[in-house]
Write a structure and sequence with these properties.
heterodimer; A: 301 residues; alpha/beta; eight-stranded mixed sheet; 11 helices; 8 strands; 36% helix; B: alpha/beta
């Protein structure tokens, strides 16, 4: 596959009304605000392989109704790229989300998290319930919820003697063939037909960071035990909506089923949907988010 | 599944050929999205119908040879006069006294004929990527014969009746890859190939021979007889019909030319928002005249 990567972002359907940086321990995180309706929606990052433009199909619609906050994850976009693994612990992303709420004077918000952003959403909802009105988890990536394709016969840390399929999910391979890994990963994240634009976007965003940085985001991850993860999920008290595609090749649908059950949430299944329905089923996802926010009623005003 | 279902539909019979039409919305004026070459049918307007029908009354019709219309077998059944007469029959059957016409590619032939011959029924014409002989074709399309057997299947040599009978899908995939040259056109290519497969290569050959019967030398005279406002929208990367053909048509009909940078032969599919807004702006510019 030959990809044409645009050197810079072309244009946006909706530009932010306000933007700024919040700094924690010397790491600057870039946030943006769109619209000023109620309540506030915080659209979290997913993983530092991409950045806040992942929400480009949500922002213009949701900002017509609500106040929408986004931020670039540390490690990509216009946020800093700290050089240590500790800086990419899951708790750091959660603390960034909280710092963005503080910096923008946001007392409480509905959180929307995709993939690993789903995990950060759950952790924030469990630890700071007074700040979280509701949680939308899109194809959430929480550890121990289901066996992962990338963990079958594979190692992230060891040199492998092959590089087919998910064997590309390997730190040594990333250093050698970063773009090829990005193209493979994007092909798995966008399993739907006619995803060439979304694949091109993802690879382009991936190239805005470096393999070195992306490796740190993997080393900094904090695997807990299944019991610990379940306990966190059970602590979530706010309404929860889980949206998960049946053809998610990164995080199996069964993971979403488990998360919805443990968090006491509602599960909406997207037939034939892949890992990034916000990009490939944007109208459906936007309407689901809207319906969820409206269902919170006066509580969220 | 469709974003917008028709409010009315029916068939009109003209000389034993049944034509299927659909009506959407009830605003004013009526915008008639005309058939183009029979290789595709009225669903090629799918990105226009939902938007335009929120403002206007929209008519579509499957061109003879495809969709839910009949498939006459003789080349003489596919001339510009037949398509023009079909359009008039659909307007009559739907009680449409006047309409703004929107035409894609060779739809330019019958819309021009309609505007020239029925000035009291046509409020204006929007042309998209018009296929008109007012300027030379792309050189690579002038090399091979359509009628004679060829000893090559490379590129535009596939535009050949013998090849169509041998490898119809192969031709369609090539042809629509040239129609849709923009990146990220896989869905539109799949749509078009699928619509073309609803007809047989024999029918497509008849329709192509019918178009070859069209009297292109008189087309310039037809253009001069067009009195209504016209708008020509042409992509500067159109690999089927050179931009110069659209520019010449705008000049010949004393209309406005809008050039879409980087766009190929099917702007209604790949730049639908832009095209819809241009159509709307054109219709609004007609003012009371088109009400």
């Amino acid at each position: 596959m030959t990809l044409m990567i645009p050197a810079t972002e072309q244009t946006r359907a909706r530009h932010p009304d306000e933007e700024g940086f919040v700094e924690r321990d010397g790491v600057r995180v870039r946030w943006e605000r769109y619209g000023d309706g109620e309540p506030t929606l915080l659209l979290l990052p997913a993983w530092s392989i991409i950045h806040s433009r992942q929400w480009k199909a949500q922002i213009p619609y949701l900002a017509r109704h609500y106040r929408v906050l986004t931020f670039d994850p540390r490690g990509n976009g216009r946020s800093d790229r700290p050089p240590t693994a500790e800086a990419y612990d899951d708790e750091q992303y959660v603390a960034d989300a909280l710092a963005v709420l503080d910096a923008t004077g946001t007392r409480e918000a509905v959180l929307v998290g995709l993939s690993r952003g789903g995990r950060w959403t759950v952790e924030l909802a469990a630890s700071r319930p007074e700040r979280v009105l509701g949680a939308v988890l899109i194809d959430p990536a929480l550890p121990f919820m289901a066996p992962l394709p990338r963990e079958q016969n594979n190692s992230f840390d060891d040199e492998l003697d092959r590089s087919d399929g998910w064997a590309k999910f390997n730190r040594h391979y990333w250093m050698r063939e970063y773009q090829d890994f990005l193209e493979f990963f994007a092909s798995q994240a966008f399993s739907e037909s006619h995803s060439t634009k979304q694949i091109e976007d993802m690879v382009g965003w991936g190239l805005e960071t470096s393999p070195e940085t992306l490796i740190l985001t993997q080393l900094g991850a904090q695997p807990t035990s299944r019991e610990e993860m379940e306990a966190i999920l059970r602590r979530v008290r706010c309404p929860v909506l889980v949206v998960h595609g049946t053809d998610d090749r990164v995080r199996p649908h069964a993971a979403g089923v488990a998360v919805a059950e443990l968090a006491g949430g509602v599960l909406v299944t997207i037939e034939g949907g892949g890992h990034c329905p916000q990009a490939r089923h944007p109208v459906k996802v936007n309407l689901l988010i809207r319906e969820f926010v409206e269902s919170l009623g006066g509580m969220a005003r | 599944m469709r974003a917008r279902e028709p409010d009315a539909e029916g068939y009109v019979d003209r000389g034993g050929v049944k034509l299927h039409y659909e009506v959407f919305g009830n605003g004013r004026p009526t915008v008639f999205l005309l058939p183009t070459w029979s290789i595709v049918h009225s669903r090629f307007w799918k990105a226009q119908v939902p938007y335009l029908s929120r403002h206007y009354r929209v008519l579509t019709c499957d061109g003879r040879g495809n969709g839910r219309s009949d498939r006459p077998t003789a080349a003489e059944a596919y001339t510009e006069q037949e398509f023009a007469a079909d359009a008039v029959a659909v307007m009559d059957a739907t009680g449409t006294r006047r309409a703004v016409l929107v035409a894609l590619s060779c739809g330019a032939l019958w819309s021009t004929l309609l505007a020239a011959d029925h000035p009291h029924r046509v409020d204006g014409v929007v042309y998209l990527g018009p296929a008109v002989g007012l300027a030379p074709p792309h050189p690579e399309r002038a090399v091979h014969s359509f009628l004679e057997p060829l000893d090559t299947d490379e590129g535009w040599a596939m535009y050949n009746q013998h090849y169509w009978l041998r490898d119809y899908r192969g031709f369609l995939e090539f042809f629509f890859s040239r129609c849709l040259t923009e990146p990220h056109s896989t869905k539109e290519q799949e749509d078009c190939v699928g619509w073309a497969l609803e007809m047989a290569p024999e029918t497509l050959i008849a329709s192509e021979l019918g178009l070859l019967l069209c009297g292109l030398e008189s087309f310039e005279r037809q253009c001069r007889r067009v009195r209504c406002p016209t708008l020509v929208i042409h992509g500067d990367e159109d690999a089927i019909r050179p931009h110069a053909q659209g520019a010449a048509l705008a000049a010949a009909t004393r209309g406005r030319l809008v050039t879409l940078a980087g766009t190929g032969h099917l702007p209604q599919a790949r730049d639908p928002v832009k095209v819809n807004l241009l159509i709307r702006e054109f219709v609004e510019s007609l003012g009371g005249m088109a009400r």
